[in-house]
């Protein structure tokens, strides 16, 4: 049994991940900003609420409550629309703060609790891939996820000496609130793939970017 910390676990992919890890008998510490009840129903899952990844105080308060653990999943994220005709700097700033700076501050605050041999899964998006961009648009979201990928690569190099592996994982196009229920896969299929990636990838693959289905993605 391993100990997993899941950040952004009250709905969508985060909640699905907690449910699946629980079925496997793993120890889970699930965090959220506000638990709407879904997490507390899951017997055995340790829930810590009041964790906002844009707020360093809440991340340090979380760190104070955590034991040593094996896998950190940073799932929290937001999607908002930005087109070339309407660039709202506040929206872009919020996307950057939650999707890029938030995961960086999260890893910075919690890394001291991750065991040697542990893993960090950053849930990014293939929309952050510059090479894979064939449809344009989504400026703020794409930029924020590219920045997350960049940060993840540096984390991988910085944490190599501690033998902590870092992976950037695309969950697929998943039917959640974020996509207003549209998508190609359901949460169950996405988290199955994400968990397989984290299980199979090793320190030899640290700093790499993957589709949950198992294909490497270009930067
Ligand atoms: N769904 C897709 O097709 C898709 C595709 C590619 C990548 N992704 C990525 O996958 C991740 C999960 O997406 P999802 O589809 O499950 O989205 P979702 O259903 O909208 O859930 C987003 C989660 O992030 C949390 N969150 C947002 N801002 C936060 C903050 N400042 N601090 C802490 N938690 C915060 C939300 O908490 P609240 O309930 O408090 O708002 C919620 O738990 C995101 O990083 C997203 O970018 C999703």
CA-based shape: globular
Q: What is the fold named in CATH at topology level?
A: Rossmann fold
Spatial strand order of the main sheet: 3-2-1-4-5-6-7
**Percentage of residues in strands:** 15-25%
How do the helices and strands line up, and which of them pair or pack?
Layout: E1 3-7, H1 12-23, E2 27-31, E3 46-48, H2 56-65, E4 69-74, H3 89-110, E5 114-123, H4 139-158, E6 165-170, H5 187-200, E7 208-211
Parallel strand pairs: 1-2, 1-4, 2-3, 4-5, 5-6, 6-7
Explain what the structure shows.
- By secondary structure, this protein is α/β, with parallel strands linked by helices.
- It has one domain: NAD(P)-binding Rossmann-like Domain (Rossmann fold).
- It contains five helices and seven strands, in the order E-H-E-E-H-E-H-E-H-E-H-E.
- The protein has a seven-stranded parallel β-sheet, with helices on both faces.
- Strand 4 (69-74), helix 3 (89-110) and strand 5 (114-123) form a beta-alpha-beta unit.
- Helix 1 (12-23) crosses helix 5 and helix 3 (89-110) packs parallel to helix 4 (139-158).
- The longest helix is centred in the middle third of the chain and has 22 residues, at 89-110.
- The termini are far apart.
- NADP nicotinamide-adenine-dinucleotide phosphate is lined by residues 8, 10-14, 32-34, 52-54, 75-79, 98, 102, 123, 125, 170-171, 173-174, 176-179, 183.
């Amino acid at each position: 049994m391993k100990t997993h910390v899941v950040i952004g676990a009250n709905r969508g992919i985060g909640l699905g991940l907690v449910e699946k890890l629980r079925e496997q008998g793993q120890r889970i510490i699930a965090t959220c900003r506000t638990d709407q009840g879904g997490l507390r129903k899951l017997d055995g899952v340790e829930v810590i609420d009041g964790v906002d990844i844009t707020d360093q105080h809440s991340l340090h308060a979380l760190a104070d409550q955590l034991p040593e653990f094996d896998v950190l999943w940073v799932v929290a994220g937001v999607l908002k629309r930005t087109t070339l005709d309407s660039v709202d700097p506040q929206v872009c700033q919020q996307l950057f703060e939650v999707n890029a700076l938030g995961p960086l501050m999260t890893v910075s605050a919690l890394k001291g609790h991750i065991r040697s041999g542990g893993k960090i899964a950053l849930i990014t998006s293939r929309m952050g891939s510059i090479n894979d961009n064939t449809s344009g648009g989504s400026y703020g979201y794409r930029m924020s996820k590219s920045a997350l990928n960049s940060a993840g690569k540096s984390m991988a190099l910085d944490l190599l000496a501690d033998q902590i592996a870092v992976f950037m994982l695309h969950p697929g196009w998943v039917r959640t609130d974020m996509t207003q229920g549209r998508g190609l896969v359901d949460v169950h299929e996405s988290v199955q793939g994400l968990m397989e990636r984290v299980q199979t990838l090793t320190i030899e693959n640290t700093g790499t970017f993957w589709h949950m289905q198992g294909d490497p993605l270009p930067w």
